[in-house]
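Reviewers of the previous submission asked for a worked example of the structure-prediction workflow described in the proposal, so we include one complete record here. The input consisted solely of the amino acid sequence. No template or homolog information was supplied to the procedure at any stage.
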Amino acid sequence: MDDIPPNETQSLGKVMVICAWILAILLMTLFFSRWSKEYQMNTKPKMVTANGIKQTLIKRNVLNQYIVEGTLNGKPVTFLLDTGATDVVIPGKIAKNLQLENGIQGTAHTAGGKVTIYGTQIDEIVIGNIALHHLKASINPAMEGNEILLGMSALKRLTFYQQGDNLVLTVTNPKSP
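From that input alone, the workflow returned the following C-alpha cells.
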C-alpha cells in the first residue's frame, strides 16, 4: 500500500475543513433566508369587498404577529399591530425620516420599563383599502426596529377579528379624534 506523504495529507485536510466551512455557511444562509422570508413574507395586505363593505386582510406570520405594509402621511412604512400599545408608536429614527415633529414630552410604561416619549399627530394612515385620519401618536426615541406599532389610537376606529390565519379589518370611524 502506498503511503501518502504528510504534506499531501495536510493539504487534503485543509481542503476538507474549508469545504466544511463553506457548506456550513451555505446551509446557515439558506436557513436564515427562509426564516426571514417566512417572518416578513405576509406584509402585503389583501383588499376585499364583502356585501359592499371594504375590508383589509392581514395574514399572520410564523411568530403569530400581524405585520403589514402601509403608508403614513403618504410615505411607505411597515406596521406591527399591537393591541397593548395605547397609541401609534413610532421609533425615533423612523419619525425623523418621516419628518414628524416632537410634541409634548411624556413618559410611557413599556415592557422594558419607563421611557421618554413625545406626542405627535398623524394626518393619515393607509393600510390596504382602509384610511384613517387625524391620529394621536407617540414618538419613542429609544425604540429600535423598523416597524411602527399600530396601537389602540388607530385600532379603536376599526372593527377587527381573526378568521383562520387572517386578521380582517373594517373601518368603524375613520375620522374620530
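The first strand starts at residue 46 and ends at 50. We consider this example representative of the routine output the project will generate in years two and three.
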